[in-house]
């Protein structure tokens, strides 16, 4: 049996807990920043995400990445506009200035500076304060555009700045590829250049142009055209004589609807690296007859005849690649 005294004790227990909790919160809030920082360091410095969430394959990749992100005690990263083409020279100028002022009364306070390969017109400087960056770039003519504005890179984007793009081991210049999707799906193309930093690949291929398509449609006509079934134009070399009033010249190239064509009618266009495939390249006899398979120093040892059966032809070129024509 519970007596009146026991009931009073039970009723007063929650009130006592509330008072104790309020007292601890008040004591915690009255601490200064250093004491609060020391408290959390002592509590969590020996624990990592593996202790809290488990390790091995079950541990989320996002948690691991967040653990490696820079903290509030790490230097900030600043993006600075630089004169185009002088990114690396500007970094060397900053390094020389750092060395020259190293033992002076006003040494530079920046921690590092670097230029990202493939990013034109920008460099990055690592420092704790914006004033340190302004002091470092003062007097450097290539950074005149950044004298009054320095862009702070968010912590969540700092790792992306340092991301190293793996050079493509499969796709190289003068190699044959096929396009995976879009208007040129399954079309054969020759690789002219590869830009790993920009994730771009320049291709030479036979265009697909619908000369009969109406240009300059109204909005209503465009809406009606969406419901019509799209018919992909056939492969054919570009003929400027069919649209003479819409062709512009750019040196030895012809520009039509934003695309570049050479004097033979081949299309030269940049694609994303992940839109092409370089394995098991199969070429059609038409590509060989129009000259796509004999660029620069390539010469055909055998010129295939039109195939009327399931038989395949293997053509060996002066390079190590073999292209199968079907």
Automatic annotation (TrEMBL):
Keyword list (alphabetical) reads:
Nucleus, Transcription
Look up the record and report any one GO term of the cellular component aspect: DSIF complex
* Biological processes annotated in GO: regulation of DNA-templated transcription elongation; regulation of transcription by RNA polymerase II; transcription elongation by RNA polymerase II
The reply on keyword NAD is: no
Residue intervals of the NusG-like N-terminal domain: 74-165
Subcellular localization(s) per the UniProt record = Nucleus
Q: What is its main location?
A: nucleus
Q: Transcription as a keyword? A: yes
Q: Molecular function (GO) terms listed?
A: mRNA binding
- Family designation: Belongs to the SPT5 family.
Instruction: Indicate what this protein is called per its UniProt record.
Output: Transcription elongation factor SPT5
Q: Which organism is it from?
A: Echinostoma caproni
């Amino acid at each position: 049996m519970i007596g009146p005294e026991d009931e009073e004790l039970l009723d007063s227990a929650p009130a006592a807990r509330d008072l104790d909790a309020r007292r601890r919160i008040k004591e915690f809030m009255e601490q200064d920043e250093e004491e609060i920082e020391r408290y959390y360091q002592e509590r969590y410095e020996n624990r990592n995400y593996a202790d809290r969430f488990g390790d091995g394959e079950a541990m989320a990749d996002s948690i691991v990445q967040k653990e490696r992100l820079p903290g509030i005690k790490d230097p900030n990263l600043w993006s600075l506009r630089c004169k185009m083409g002088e990114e690396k020279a500007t970094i060397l100028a900053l390094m020389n200035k750092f060395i020259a002022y190293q033992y002076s009364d006003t040494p530079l306070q920046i921690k590092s500076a670097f230029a990202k390969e493939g990013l034109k017109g920008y460099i990055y400087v690592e420092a704790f304060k914006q004033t340190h960056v302004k002091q470092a770039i003062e007097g450097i003519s290539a950074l005149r555009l950044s004298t009054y504005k320095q862009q702070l890179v968010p912590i969540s984007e700092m790792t992306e700045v340092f991301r190293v793009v793996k050079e493509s081991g499969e796709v190289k210049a003068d190699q044959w590829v096929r396009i995976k999707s879009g208007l040129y799906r399954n079309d054969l193309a020759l690789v002219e250049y590869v830009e790993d930093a920009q994730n771009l690949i320049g291709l030479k291929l036979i265009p697909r142009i619908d000369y009969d398509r109406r240009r300059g449609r109204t909005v209503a006509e465009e809406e009606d055209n969406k419901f019509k079934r799209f018919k992909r134009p056939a492969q054919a070399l570009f003929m400027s004589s069919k649209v003479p009033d819409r062709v512009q010249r750019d040196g030895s190239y012809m520009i039509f609807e934003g695309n570049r064509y050479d004097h033979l009618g081949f299309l030269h266009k940049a694609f994303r690296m992940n839109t092409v495939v370089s394995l098991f390249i199969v070429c059609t006899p038409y590509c060989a007859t129009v000259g796509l398979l004999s660029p620069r120093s390539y010469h055909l040892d055998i010129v295939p005849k039109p195939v009327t059966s399931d038989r395949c032809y293997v053509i060996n070129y002066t390079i190590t690649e073999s292209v199968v024509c079907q």
